[in-house]
Amino acid sequence: MAIIKPAVDAAGVVSTDPVPAGTGSAMAIVVDDHPLVASGIAEFLMTHCGMSQVRTAHSAQDCLALIAEGTVPELIIIDFWLPDGTAAELVSQLAAINPQIRLLATSGDEDAAVMLKAREAGADGFVHKQAAADIFSEVVAAVRRGEPHFPPLPARLLDLPHRRDVPLSASDLGLTVRQGEILGMMLRGFPNKRIARDIGVSEYTVKEHVTGILNRLGVSNRIEAITLLRGRKLGN
């Protein structure tokens, strides 16, 4: 199979001419808010994964607009962190629109909670952006065949729903000691202003910690964090 360098047109469509033998008319969409990354993944799909056409989108809304205008891809690869939401949210929407589309989430974030969030939303697979080229292409091929592919989850995340009698430490959740302290106060319903006063830092600093905590847990807001950890005890 010849490797042909794709060209990107003004509409963000990556295509080859001629189409490499054996690729058929497979189409994909790559959703990533970094244009260079999106184009790089699109080119990789063309030259290594047998896709004959790839369109790029830089936000969830861009992707949904492509679907609304009649684009019917076989595969959509979605970066987890998007400027207008997360892959989990977009996956849920796309699965409702067309359950036949294969949905593969990706991220440079090594936090396993990100992958867990994508899986729970209904993604068909997850692959890290740091993955070697052969691994990336193998995951794409598996998902296209209808075979779910997710890296193994660390025990600390697999155990969260089941071992509620065991206290969790900040390190169990991938948090710093300070973040663990703030999380405990969040779970008790304390607002940022109260937390800032009690631990002697600025409210801005608390907000930064809260954002880090939510990202590490793979949730979008305090309510989701409380739901995830409902009934759990936080230890030292």
Automatic annotation (TrEMBL):
Parts forming coiled coils: none
Keyword Phosphoprotein: yes
Gene3D superfamilies: 3.40.50.2300
Domain (Response regulatory): residue spans on this chain: 27-144
Residues recorded with modification 4-aspartylphosphate: D79
One GO BP annotation of this record: phosphorelay signal transduction system
Classification via CDD domains: LuxR_C_like, REC_NarL-like
Source taxon at top rank: Bacteria
InterPro entries reported in the protein's UniProt record: CheY-like_superfamily, EvgA-like, NreC/VraR/RcsB-like_REC, Sig_transdc_resp-reg_C-effctor, Sig_transdc_resp-reg_receiver, Tscrpt_reg_LuxR_C
UniProt keyword Acyltransferase present: no
Key words, A-Z: DNA-binding, Phosphoprotein, Two-component regulatory system
Protein name: LuxR family two component transcriptional regulator
